Amino acid sequence: MRRLALLALLPLLAPAAEQRHLRYDNIHDAEVTEIQRVMSRLAPGAIVDIDSVYDSCSCEEGITCSAQVWVVSHRSGRSTGIWLSKMDGHWTLGPYEQWQSDINHLYWRRTELIGPRDAPDFASRRDTYNKQMLALQTAKPHCGYAPAADSASR
After folding, report:
1. Domain span at residue 125?
2. I want to staple 57 with a disulfide (CB 3.0 to 4.6 A). Which of 4, 61, 64, 91 is the partner?
3. What is the pLDDT of residues 53-76, one digit of tens each?
4. What is the pLDDT of residue 5?
């Protein structure tokens, strides 16, 4: 039931998916194994649901992306969905999902990074945080984006 609710949100989370087509042969056993390996690194110990494979990618993922799949991990009563992209023949977080992950990680750590308002270094810590956030926001992948050489190794 919960999986169906999450999958029902898919078109809202990625409107471009509505314009793409499912891959005719869907997914192969070797790809399932590779996706499970990627997800064990991203969400250790999670139960993983793998949706159907799309035969193309959102343009933010760049030209080396040939397919995408929505994967939901269930761990400790919490479910999280991400797009994995097939980049140069391997399933991985594409540039956009990596960017989204990085910006979310920074955002959720803001209280820890900035510290209490009454701390003597509050202003400088806040400025450092704001500069890091701005740098991430300006690095957002966009259509026509060519990923940096190190993004595939993440």
Report:
1. 109-140
2. 61
3. 999 998 889 889 999 999 999 999
4. 59
